Amino acid sequence: MRPVIAVHAGAGTWRYLRIRDVIPVIERALRSGMEVIASGGMAVDAAVKATIALEDSGLLNAGLGSVVDLTGNVTMDAGVMDGETGGIGAVAAVTYPKNPVLLAKKVMELTDHVLLAGEGADKLAKALGMERHPGPTERVMGRYRELLAKIKEGGAVRFRKSYELALKLGWLDLHDTVGAVALDREGRLAAAVSTGGVIMKFPGRVGDSAIPGAGFYATQKGAAVATGIGEVIIKSFLALSVVRRIESGLPAMEAAERTIEELTKDYGKDTAGVLVVDGEGNAWASYNTEAMPWGFLRLGDRAPTISGLPESS
Ligand code: GLY
Questions:
Q1: Structure pTM?
Q2: pLDDT at position 80, please?
Q3: Could you tell me if the CB of 273 is within 6 A of ligand 1?
Q4: Is 209 near ligand 1, meaning CB less than 6 Å away?
Q5: Domain locations along the chain
Q6: Which is the most buried residue in 26, 168, 185, 250, by most CB within 10 A?
Q7: 76 lines ligand 1 (CB under 6 A)
Q8: Following DSSP, what letter does each residue of 143-210 receive, concatenated?
């Protein structure tokens, strides 16, 4: 068994972001999570710390870089699961915290509940003195205005059709959700995930990242986080399906590959990806999108391994 931290920056098309800007973010997140593991800390703290580094990048679709809904507002989802204790915390459609994944961890630690949504969750973040989200970045708002204009130009009145058309035309640069999985020195596993959801979503929409078993799951044998179209991931219970396969004896890579194969048969390509680690410390990401930048760092390794980059990079 070798302790490891693995993170991803989202499955998607990766057309607009420069991948050379994303690689240092992945490396920073891995090193940040590994600091916790190396000092004897818990997998759950490592996964959350790594996810905070991704949220704080302002580049990825989570935390500071979260995309906006149809009305131009940021609402975020996040989840955490400690595979050792079975503890779960999640938040849905929150607007207040800069780091929704931290609020999800507080839900796990401080409340009797698994999932807090909207106003109540925001109130808790405020009461805990959490840092406040500053609102969408200029880059996200620029993209929003451009999309809105294109949707209007097209005369499209229905969100679904507009959205699918925009996706087909390459106007939506889907790079969706961030997440981390970790195995610590004591063999404990954990998963953490965070997202701004899908751009131009209907206000109030909640995706997979707030739903245990869909966007994230961890047991004493495996941990997984999902990325992609939340509706597909919720219907297929992606993270739970992968972990169940690990529990039935498959190593991380095979479990992830088989589950994504099955999901692709049911829902088509360009829909999802999953990052997973098993109890031996094998980390793997499988996806049916153009790319899913991800990486892992094992305890004792000097340099991380990065993979899943778009072909053009
Ligand atoms: N995978 C993130 C979402 O659909 O909200």
A1: 0.94
A2: 98
A3: no
A4: yes
A5: 4-306
A6: 26
A7: no
A8: HHHHHHHHHHHTT---HHHHHHHHHHTT-S--EE-EEEEEE-TTS-EEEEEEE--STTPPTT---GGG
